Amino acid sequence: MTKLNIVIADNESIIRMDLREMLEEVGHTIVGESVNGLKAVELTRRLKPDLVIMDIKMPEMDGITAAKIISEEKLAPVILLTAFSQKNIVEKAKDSGVLAYLVKPIQPANLFPAIEIALSRFAEIQQLEQDLNNVKNSLEMRKTLDRAKGILMDAYNLTESEAYRRIQKYSMAKRKSIKEVAEAIIHAATK
């Protein structure tokens, strides 16, 4: 397992101490500790840990609300801890974007697999978001290029492939991306 920087949030000092001991024993570093969800969010934003482990029931801001903020801001994977396993709490936890949920008392045999799964799921989510952004950018680029080709085709009575070759040649000659050239053509045509 890779050595991680971790933020722990639990209003019970004995739980934080036990977690710290378990995690440091295998080489992880506890970069921040908190007794409430509000401070956990602030620490996570500031310290950018690899993982956040927090209790659900805490003062000022509960762990579910804090986990939702951390997940929405894509700051770190979150594992929620609770002494309760009621269905309604589990449902709320699912909706908060947490990647694992453990019932206290926490045992290393449960904690470490949950950490591995949470890290793996977080990496998968980040990769999917990157892939989605790439597809969106590619689609936007395609639309921009098609519009620029259409402008050249209309203006110079060119075929689509001739319009594309002109854009491509200009792109190479001016050392600009095809997207930049296409955007310039559209901009010039709309003036």
UniProtKB/TrEMBL annotation:
GO molecular function, one term: RNA binding
Ranges for domain Response regulatory: 5-119
Modified residues (4-aspartylphosphate): D55
InterPro entries: ANTAR (IPR005561), CheY-like_superfamily (IPR011006), Sig_transdc_resp-reg_antiterm (IPR008327), Sig_transdc_resp-reg_receiver (IPR001789), WH-like_DNA-bd_sf (IPR036388)
Keyword Phosphoprotein belongs to the record: yes
Name of the protein in question: Probable transcriptional regulatory protein pdtaR
ANTAR domain span: 125-186
SUPFAM superfamilies: CheY-like (SSF52172)
Cross-referenced Pfam families: ANTAR, Response_reg
Biological processes, Gene Ontology terms: phosphorelay signal transduction system
Protein source organism: Megamonas hypermegale
